[in-house]
Amino acid sequence: NLGNVLTTQRKFDAAVDSYRAAVALAPSNPIAHRNLGAALLARGDRDEAIATLRRLVELAPGDAQARVDLGIALRDAGQADAAIAQFERAAELSPMRADAHAGLAEALYRRRQTARAAECMTRALELAPAHGPAYRMLGDMYHDLGKYDASVMCYRAATELDANDVDAHHRCAIVLLKQNRADDALHHARAALALNDRAAPAHMTLGDVLGMLGDVDGELAHYRRAVELDVTNPVLHDRLVFALATHPSIDQEETLRAARHFGEYVEADARPLAHTDTGSRPSGGRLRIGWVSGDLVTHPVGIFLEGVLAHLDRHRLELIAYPTSAAEDDTTARLKPHFDAWHSLLDLSDEQAAQRIRADGIDVLVDLSGHTALNRLGVFAWKPAPVQVTWIGFFASTGLRAIDYVLGDRHVLPAGEEAHFVERPWRLPDSYLCFTPPHPALDVGPLPQRENGVMTFGYFGKLGKMNDAVVRVWSRVLAAVPGARLFLKAGELDDAHAVRRTAERFARNGIDASRLVMEGRSPRADYLTAYRRVDMMLSPFPYPGGTTTAESLWMGVPVLGMKGERFVTHICESVLQTVGLADWIARDEDDYVAKAVAAAADPQRLGALRQALRAQLLASPLCDAPRFAKHLEEAFYGMWMDRTNAGADERAAAGEEPN
């Protein structure tokens, strides 16, 4: 009784002494061991608590509560397998105990046995339905399983049981956003912030929602606030740098400052690794190239990488992939055979990943993400390879001094823009992109305008790229071409709210909803087929499409782009210039409208171009994978030689003999 009183008073040291005395007096008394185990856990003596609870189970093997207590202690100690065994036995002994099923579910979840964990948590909630945290965890499980509708239902159930469950509101917003249900996500994101306005992840999520809604200023404001609240979270920096790089009115100096801020923070916690003498070839004559990416799937990175890998000279290069995601698909299956090794970084810390890469003897390490999702820029801060370069995945500086080069071309990295990068620009001769045509190939269809007499403009991309200036200019185009339609295709348009909101944006610019065709997500083959319904694509600005531009040209549909003043704004330019379509790049908004109107008035020209465009694309450097691969090899060797020569200069300055 004294121990119980002391525990109630949170005097755990004294309570432990009291319970130990009780155990000494009655060593076979299960209650004494249970109380001692609980007190030991309360004061943080986990190992002794587990030993005590094991003794309890020996004394009372049929006591389900004892096994639940031991299971919880083992689970919290990271011994998930041992915990699972205890919870399973508890559930066998007492099938109606909700805590046994819930404990088993959580332990299974920690072991990534998510499907079975969800079944166990569902059973727990059947037995004890008024438990909000259990609904929240079940929502997490369904989220991980990709069952987003069920996940949302669970999170909402948690918030109904406890309107102040900030985590449930926040996670619900995240899943709704993945479903492109931005309006519903907005409600929960705001609810989460109302409960805790100092939660940096909640600010980030609200920024994500506002970005999908086209509110780029609101998006940016919440990303800034998130970084202010938690400078230690690299994901928050990623969001901020990305938003700054694509914002229509933010100058490049501010973007670079934010990138440098990230770089300084990350590199302060890293210790650059030492490398063997770069004057010799550690790879037996071949350069060993490492590729770090979370997008080795059907994604712009995977699409642009596939054709290149197939044509790299394996007598000169050894290729090792370092995926940062477990996701795989048909594209992954086609990419894997091109690599000599495939080493996941998913469960490794930045330091562990860097040590692994260094142990592999990588000569040139390539970042394919920049400040996009699933990046591992923190690994690069450890300098696991003598030469490090960023390519494809991003369109601004990473901010890391540890990354030596940014790979581009004369279009995306024109002379005079080097100052906006921490990295040294390395320009490929033609384009920094190499397009892998879709397979199987779909035929180019006839010009829709000739078939139905109606000019159809199109845009197949994220609605977030349609800022107010883009909507205004596209509305001017529609106003100047009587009867013309704009075909918008985006995943966000699966949501009726997004359809209504998009129509309202154009209505404010004088365009009736009847002139808009809006469709949501579709399978890839259907998505490509949809290009047959478009006469001409309109590229947004300042954040244009790269993959969508190339895919449009492949399907015979010309793309109208806008000349820009920074890397991201030059992407469409680079594609069009490389394919020989420089006349489809507008100087400014007025020129953009004029070019669109002129093209719409000349169906003869559009029809002829449609039939010739695929051949023109295939004949261009953009699709010349062998040529591109040769240029990329030369770039890697050039970077390596620069490093080697720099090392030789340093050794000479130190009075050492040349290698």
Attribute tags:
Rossmann fold; disordered C terminus; alpha/beta; 7-stranded parallel β-sheet; 6-stranded parallel β-sheet; 659 residues; 29 helices
How would you portray this structure in words?
The protein is of the alpha/beta class and 659 residues long. Among the domains are: 287-428, Rossmann fold; 449-622, Glycogen Phosphorylase B (Rossmann fold). It has 29 helices and 13 strands. The strands form two sheets. The chain has a seven-stranded parallel sheet, with helices on one face. A six-stranded parallel sheet has the order 10-9-8-11-12-13, with helices on both faces. Residues 654-659 have low confidence and may be disordered.
